[in-house]
Every structure is written in C-alpha cells, then in structure tokens.
From TrEMBL:
GO terms for biological process: positive regulation of metabolic process. Residues 27-57 form the Zn(2)-C6 fungal-type domain. Coiled coil: none annotated. PANTHER family: TRANSCRIPTIONAL ACTIVATOR PROTEIN UGA3, ZN(II)2CYS6 TRANSCRIPTION FACTOR (EUROFUNG). This is Zn(2)-C6 fungal-type domain-containing protein. Keywords: DNA-binding, Nucleus, Transcription, Transcription regulation. It comes from Aspergillus carbonarius (strain ITEM 5010). One of its GO terms (molecular function) is DNA binding.
Amino acid sequence: MEIKYGWGGGNSESTCLSSGVRCYTGGCQRCVTKRVKCDEKHPCCSRCARLGSACEWVRPRPSLAARRRGFGPIKYRQTNDWTPKPILPKSKENVKDDVTHTGGLEGSVVISSLSSSRASSPSRSGFKWDLSATECLPPSAQDRSIVNPQNVASLDFMAPIWLTPATALFLVDAIGESPSLGSDDGQAVSFHHSVLAPLKSTRSPPFSAHALFLRHAWDKRIALHFLLAVSHSEMAIYQGQGTRPPAESRFHLQKGLELLVQVWNPVALSDHFEVMLSLLYMYMFWMRRDRLTPSRLRALSSTILAYVRLYGIDGLCTDEDLAFAPHHVNVPDKVLLSRVFIYLYDRDGFCSFFDCGGSFASYVNENSEASRKIWRLSRTAFLCLPRDNLGSDLTGIPEVEEAAVLQVYFELIRIHQRINSYSQRGSLDDEAMPVQRQLDQMRKLRFQERSSIFYRAASLEDEEHSPSLIEMVTVSLFYAVCIYLCRSRSPALGERPVPPEVQTALSGLVTTAHRTISRGSVQLLERFQWSLLILGLETNDPIHWDWVGKNITDAAIREVFHVCLRAKKQSGGSISMATIRQLVSGEV
C-alpha cells in the first residue's frame, strides 16, 4: 500500500491505515474537517465559496530545522570576531529580571539599572519576558531582505482586501539603509518598558497604556515584531543615533509586514486586537521619522478605516450584549480593543492637521455617541487588571483620579478633528459656531468641578493642590485649539491685527507651556508638541521662536516648525493653514 504524506502546499492526500479510505490532509480547515478534497485557493477555496461558508486557514508548520532547534535565536559566530563571554554568577538583585543584557551597547548600564529597579514592580510579578515568538537579527549584520518596489505588486495582489489601499506601506526600502545598533531584542523590550512607555505617558509605568499593550503583545507574533521595530528605532533616537531606523528595526518591520499580509480571516477579538495594535505601532514608527510622509500616513489611515468597516470593529466595541456573545468574546479583549481604537483615532486626528490622513478620524467623528461609548469602555482597561497589581484602593488609579480631566482631554481631541474637517474640506461657515460655543463653555466653567483644571493651572499659591502633568497638558491643548479655530481658514497664523480671543489664548498658552515643561517630561507627548508648534507659528516674538525651537523635541514637528517659520518670515509675518499643509506635502 502506497502512503503519501504532505504538509500543506499542493493537494496532499494519504491512505488511512485503519479504514483504507483516502484522507486529504491539505487545504482549509473546513475541508479537512469534512474530509473532502480542497483546491487550496486563497483567500477562499472553491468549495467554501460555493457553500458561502468561512474559509479558515492555519499557519504553515515550521520547518524541520526550526522544530529541532526550537524558536530561539540562531547564533551567528565568526571565527575572527567572536569570543565567548565569561560565565559570571548572577547577583541576587538581578535574578528576577529575565531580560538579558549584552555588552557593546552604549547606554546599556542605564537600561540595566532601570530594568533592575522595576524588577520588584507589582505589575511585573510573575511576568517573564519571553522572546521565543520572534527571531533575532545578527548583531553586526544588516538585513538585506527588505521589500523592494518590484515586489510591491505581488504583495498587493496577495494581501487581504482591507490592505489593498496600503501599497505605500510596503516600500520599506524607502527609509534607506543604516548600520546596526548592536542591540538585542531583550534590550529593546527593557527600553520600551522602562524608558519609552513613561515618556509616552503622563503616568507612572504600571499605569501607562503602552506598558499595558506591551504586556498583552507577547503571544501575538505580528504585534510583537512591530513593537520591536518601534523599540529599536526609539532606542537609536534616545542614544543620539538619529531618526533613521537601525537594521534591527528594519528587520522586525519587514517580518511584521510579511505576517500581516497573511491575516485573511480574523475572528476572535484577540485577533482584531493584534491587527489594530500592529497598525498603531506602524503609526508610532512612521511618525518618528525625520519628516512626515503624507502618502504613507494616508495609506495607513485608509487601511485602518477599511479594516474597521470590513469587520465592524466599532460595533464590536459598542456592543453591550455580552450575555449572548460568542465564547471567544470576553470583556478584557473588548476593553483592550477599545483602548487601541481610541489611540488610533488620536494618532490619525493628529496627522489630519497636516493633511497626512484623517479618513479614519473623520469616520469616528461621524458617530459621536459610538465614539463616546468606546472612549468610556477604553478607560476601564486598568480596572480589569487583578487587584494585586493595582492595590485595593481604586482612587490610586489615574483613570479614577483624573476622570474629569480625561473627559476634557477627549473632547478637545474631538474638537480638534472637527476643526481639521472645517479647515480642509470647505465645510460651511456655520459649522465653526458650535465648536466655538463648546470652547466658550469650557472657558466659562473653569471654576466649576469639570473645568477646575484651568484654575489649578493658573494658580501658583496653592501648593497642596498643584496641577498634575496631564492637567497642564490639557490646558495647553485647550489654548492651542482656541487659536487653531480662529486661524483655521482666515486670518492666517500671526496675521495682524490679532483678534482679542487669539491674544487671550496665546497669553494663556505661553504661561501654561512654560509651567508644563518645568512640571515633567513632555518630549514624546504629541499633543503638547503640537501646542508648541501653534505657539511658535502664532507669535511674532523672536525670543518665543527660540524657546519653542529648543523645546520641540519631535524631529518631524521640529522640521515642520523650522520650514514654516522660514516661510512665515518671507511672507511678512503670517502663514496660512493651506500653506503649512502644502509645505508638509512638498507642494511648495
């Protein structure tokens, strides 16, 4: 009796020894379960297409070499350069830290100390960094397998339907080649948790949303690759190596893209969370380059919108009927998905100001009630964590302490996107009036409970109730949004005579921005960096120009500021929003 074995790829069939009946081992899961032959057409085989059923595929089995050595990193040893490291006993204070730190990385002592200082953190108790889900790059070699433009057509053909508008995302080689940083994935993870996550938030690391995403990305291979791409890139920027991503970052970005195009039929909320989190990390990666790339960010925005519409992600987040939900739906996954949804909305609205996207943010703004439901659900992310991680006192959780402040912050983000649409798409003039009334209402209620942040931000005498960093950032954003509304069409930024409401907002923004920078670290807070940009383009004081230029730390926003400031000086002291967007897109 002839027996044939196959592992996917082609029509594989074998003769079962027990019954003598032919069994088909290749094809989609539904055909294999029914024991029928599958033609293995992607993304949907002919049988499933004819029956109208979901065609599910499993990931290919790893190669024999990968199964023999496991999923750990391959050791690259060069006879001339490589020497074994001395075996030293571990100190007791480093036993809890599962991240390995190798030599050869400048600043590794700082990362090691930060990592050891957080080893006893309650949020990491019982949690181990396991990098077995990804592959490691040779420490001194550049990856040469980056996608080239010749392969874009084939990738676009093979990609799922929701990735079709994202052709520009696959042009990874457009960022150019760069030397290796010499860091390993363990160091990148340690840096992400200890340095990057706190800098991206106004909170302590246990309550940082990016630390929360980090803890839920380990069993999600696609998101983990994009996370490591961001971490290696941010480590290079942090060490002064420039905004060009190192070889390690490009390697993980390429691997993540290769896996992303294989996502054909996500079903569970955890699968949607992995895809949405991967898209968020792509935003974080491309927004941190030396200049904004409108085509790539627009493609990313269109991709997110296509994915959300295709799978009804907003409906999954707002569905309150959990009693009759499928077995794969659970509250933590839903909360995490809502959290990522809001972060993507924030990033896309931010890029929409520069006309680098905004299609997804505009879609979310169309249904204000649904967006507010998703926002309220996303704020319960830390309440779903075990009590031993948070403590018994709920008032210690920032989501509870800063509920009123966070609500004002979210409303300002919504207003910002409404002004973007009003400024770019030729909306009616009457649409600016509701926005102006909403801002006036916030300003008039400054002494009430909801807007007492304005009083605390302006008060210097009451040290016991000094404003927090998020309050200072929110007030700065409020003043910047007021200026943006008045200057969104005409008159231009910096144009004289200055309207009274603009002068009042500018004075408040200058005062609050100085106090915010003295309050805490704001280098990676995009909304505050945008507020500084508005301040620098509205004022005509050279002293303020120098101060803003020194305190805008984001490379892309700093480049926009310097380019627009030169154009403003050449045009007589004013610059319109249309000119700013043309300068960003390279049309001027």
